Amino acid sequence: MKKFITTLRDYLNENEDSYSSFKKTYHQKKQNFVNSISSFKDIDDNKIREIFDFFGTEGYNDEEDAFEDFKDKINEWRNFPDPVKLYRIVGVKDKKLIKKDELGEYWTPYKWNLDGDMLMSIGYELWDDETKPFVIEALVPLSEINIIQTIIQNLSFPNEHEINLKNKGKNIKFVKSYKLKGF
How many folded domains does the chain comprise? Predict the structure, then answer.
């Protein structure tokens, strides 16, 4: 019995080291990959496949659909002007309560995406009667887009068309805000 326990302990220690080594190598490869992407222009077809390997394609039915849709998104993001105009909806009781120095991290490049579906995704149905949806328009330097988080978000929820910003939107230029029509 003593020999069995010693053998088992040795086996577990050897495999734990192998697993730890694998885990460390994987995390290092992932970090190197993440560091290799500093703009959307760094992403080609091969990188898209690597992105899928590291982050998955959870929001899609299959990888080929994901590849075609995601490639289209990457091509569009590559062509963003610098700065790019982005939109966001916030719930406030008065337009004056919008914090222009911290506008938030979740945005969309599409005005047409500012609809009831978006309101539901941000919890509109839980707001009190005095809280109203306001659209914020901002000019965002491309350097303020959190590229990796935008990628992950769009792979998980491709229909949200979300652009994620760094620093909760602190380094962007507020353009205007207005009440969302129809609400």
Answer: 1
